[in-house]
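DM from R.C. (forwarded with permission)

"hey, sorry to bug you on a friday — could you get me a structure for this? deadline for the figure draft is monday and I only need the backbone to look sensible"
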Amino acid sequence: MDSRRPTTRFTLIQKLVVSYAAMLFLTTSALIFSVMGIYSLNSTAKEIARTDLFNIDATNRLRDSMLSQERFAGKYVILDSPEFKQMFHQRQDEFLAILDQMGRRSNDGNFRAVVTSYDIYRKAVARAFEAGISKTIPAQREADQVIVQIDKLAAASQKQLNRKLANADRRETATVRLTLILSFSGFLLALSIAGLFIHNISRSIGKLKKGMHRIAEGDFEYNPQIPTGDEIGALADDFVRMGKKLKELERMSLDASPLTRLPGNIAIERILNKRLLSGEPFAVCYGDLDNFKAYNDHYGYIKASEVIKLTGKLIYETVRQVAGADAFVGHVGGDDFVMVVAAEQAAPVCEAVIARFDDFIREHYTVEDLAKGAIEGVDRYGVARTFPIMSISIAVVISQQNEYASAVEIAKTAADIKELLKGTPGSNYLVNRRKTNR
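My reply, with the result:
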């Protein structure tokens, strides 16, 4: 019993697909994370450029504009020169335009505080302008408050920018780290897969190579012990079956006749027992060459052996042609042959074999012997006799279900039929004591 058990349900192709799919997933994930990281950093850079850097630059311009407004307002109320008032209003419009641009991007508490303090400052300056000439800079306290709020807005904008930059640095580091981890994992996975496959295939090929050497040495039962489940396992199964088949062929070869190469007694007994166990009707045809000993004595054993060899080939080809590939032909030994066919094919097989043998055997006699229709010789008792041209007698045993218990019984019945046939001249066959002559 084969002790091997399947270790996997995947073929080599399936394992390769699954393994490289995992590697592709890791590589693709690394690429996706890298692209997402770049996209995120790009979005952060755009946001910083659109909002934070603008706000920082705008707060600087607000501060410069506020200081300019203080100077022009002071010069106007002290010198009462209209051009300073005009310059003040230009700076004021500039300041309001900057606030408007900033308000479109953000409107947090610090920004609103700047707007509120500046509104107070504008009203205070307007009152100072209405009051006329003064010896001091108008709305000094309100101007200082605006500057304070602008500085707070600038500090908040700078803090927010620093926070975004730090966050961007963290995302960049995380993206690079994760991309490297996934890429390296995919690389290691690819190396592991390649190494594992090379190792397993190399080891399996080594086992198969060892098995080939063992079989060449005659160990047909050697099992390479390769786990089943993939193509190499299937190849190992085929290898084991090949060994069993070779062992069977070796046994058949040892049992086969060295002259005709037809299966011998062991194979004949096996096929008869197999047919008996099946319970199906079948026919066993025992063929025997008449006057073969006299032919051997007259023409010599080389010529006689050639006749036996060619007769075996003739019977084999004829039976296969008439009865098909399921028919069996064996060589008991000497001039005895066995044909196992379906019951209904017995008569056609016997008639075809007899017809072809009678034509064939005449080619192996001299013209003189054929003209006489016989050869001179001595029988087994040393008595000189005249022996007719060689013929073939076929004893046919039809086995119905449970009619015979063993191959021995069939052989005994065939022997009895052959005794009846021996007294009849010429080639003929007899089916269970019913004879048909040619």
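R.C.: lifesaver. The longest strand covers residues 282-290.
me: no worries. The chain is about 70% helix and 10% strand.
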